[in-house]
Amino acid sequence: MRPTHVVFVLVPRLHLLDLAGPAQVFSTAKDFGYGYDVSYVAESDEVVTAQGVPLRTQSVWPELDPGDLIVVPGWRSPRLSPESPIGPEFRQRLRTHHARGGTVASVCSGADALGWAGLLDGRRFTTHHDLTDELAARYPRATMVRDVLYVEDDRVITSAGIASGIDLALHLVAVGRGAEAAARVAREMVVYARRNGDELQESAMLRHRGHLSDLAHRVQDVIDARYADKLPLAELAGEVGVSERTLTRIFTTATGLTPLRYQQLLRVERAEHLIGHGSTVESAARTVGFENPRMLRRLRSRTSV
């Protein structure tokens, strides 16, 4: 299968972490064999970051397919310029890629570039809290969503800025390559992440990965990969070579959940994703491993999910 190509558009005075965070996610996913290629384009041969680090890049775009991704990191902007941060050719690149079925994302003030390209009109979006009022006024045909880490609307994905670019990238890896892949990347990056986005308000997979128990992480790896399967406690205990009692004690201490409850949260989150993309409750319930859709309805109604 052809790898997903992720292209970062570099704007002068961009924030290093707006770029480096999501770039690290996708490059780590590539190292693990999950099928990503990463490249960088700019309108000049050298871009100086807000932190003073010069970056050498190219202005020639790679060939992109609908399954590929363009990301515009944010730049230092106490107030946004009245002029577009990218020229007409790059704006057209963003529009064309989206029109062909591709995904376009931004970090922080990168949403302004998407707005200049006309991709925010009629859609919900977010940005860094310092810029929400300004961008809401600049793009009145769009709907600003405040106090979230990222928002996804019709393949236009915007994030709050700085470290939230990591949450955005992990979300995209989870959707594209599965929960296990995203958890593995997050663990490699030593990330304690809370994916508070538009579609998945909190990710159990990452919210309960901030502990230091290797045994609990190994059990979570198994559950992440096989959350739709029946996973008896005895089978999980055998996977890590401990008794059921020891597994339950260590897992609950580390995550605050029993293994079953953790699996249920993963199932519900995946079901919510499917329902949000047009699946019926019954179909989503079967896909994620619930034998009876009533169980999914009951778990969805819990405010703790």
TrEMBL record:
Picking any one GO molecular function of the record gives: DNA-binding transcription factor activity
Domain spans labelled HTH araC/xylS-type: 217-305
Query: Which keywords describe this protein according to UniProt?
Result: Transcription, Transcription regulation
Per the record, the coiled-coil ranges are none
Name the SUPFAM superfamilies on file. Answer: Class I glutamine amidotransferase-like (SSF52317), Homeodomain-like (SSF46689)
Classification via CDD domains: GATase1_AraC_1
Q: Name one Pfam family in it.
A: DJ-1_PfpI
PANTHER family noted in UniProt: ARAC-FAMILY TRANSCRIPTIONAL REGULATOR (PTHR43130), HTH-TYPE TRANSCRIPTIONAL REGULATOR RV1931C (PTHR43130:SF3)
Protein known as = AraC family transcriptional regulator with amidase-like domain
- Look up and give the organism this protein is from: Kribbella jejuensis
